[in-house]
């Protein structure tokens, strides 16, 4: 799990929910992932805190063929102009997704999110149901391959509840 990235986001008091593969792992899946996907809350104050965290992480835009990534100037205003940012940081790959497939964004995802401790700070993790819904809606090959395991885990969890 990319704890270093999570810790920086938490220290900067960024409101976000972990989504994607890390959320799947934290929900009990044996998923393999190398990046951290998060859905940040979109208020200007939060995006300014996110920008400060990205500065700490030395974030650069991830581009195929450019190993060190592309530097970019960012602030709360500029971060809000894109739906997704795929970044390379000094703590690993970080993807910011403001409107994950199959969701209505942060307010939708945070309702069922649950807390996890990260170096004494609290991060929120998307529920397994949200992870499944998002991966189903994304309809990418890698998501479709992960869905049977995630759906079986979700069914098992629903039975025990």
Structure description:
- This protein is α+β, with helices and mostly antiparallel strands.
- The chain is built from seven helices and eight strands; from the N terminus they run αβαβαββαββαββαα.
- The protein has an eight-stranded mixed β-sheet with strand order 4-3-5-6-2-1-8-7.
* Unreliable spans: none
Order the strands across the largest sheet as they lie in space: 4-3-5-6-2-1-8-7
CATH topology: Beta Polymerase, domain 2
Biggest beta sheet summary = 8 strands, mixed
Total domains, how many?
Answer: 1
Radius of gyration: 15 Å
Shape, principal axes of CA atoms? globular
> Strand portion, in percent?
25-35%
Number of H- or I-type helical stretches = 7
Summed up:
The chain is an alpha+beta fold and 161 residues long. The protein has helices spanning 3-11, 20-26, 44-56, 76-79, 106-110, 128-138, 141-160; strands spanning 16-19, 35-40, 60-63, 66-70, 84-89, 92-97, 114-118, 121-125. The chain has a single domain, classed as Beta Polymerase, domain 2 (2-Layer Sandwich).
């Amino acid at each position: 799990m990319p704890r270093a990235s999570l810790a920086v986001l938490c220290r900067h008091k960024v409101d976000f929910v972990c989504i994607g593969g890390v959320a799947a792992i934290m929900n009990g899946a044996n998923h393999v992932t190398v990046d951290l996907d998060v859905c940040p809350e979109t208020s200007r104050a939060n995006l300014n805190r996110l920008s400060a965290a990205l500065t700490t992480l030395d974030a650069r835009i991830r581009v195929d063929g450019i190993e060190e990534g592309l530097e970019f100037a960012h602030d709360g205003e500029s971060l809000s102009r894109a739906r997704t940012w795929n970044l390379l940081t000094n703590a690993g790959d970080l993807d910011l997704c403001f409107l994950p497939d199959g969701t209505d964004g942060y307010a939708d995802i945070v309702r069922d999110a649950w807390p996890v401790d990260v170096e004494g700070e609290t991060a929120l993790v998307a529920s397994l149901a949200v992870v499944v819904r998002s991966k189903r809606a994304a309809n990418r090959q890698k998501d479709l391959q992960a869905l049977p395991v995630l759906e079986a885990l979700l069914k098992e969890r629903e039975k025990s509840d």
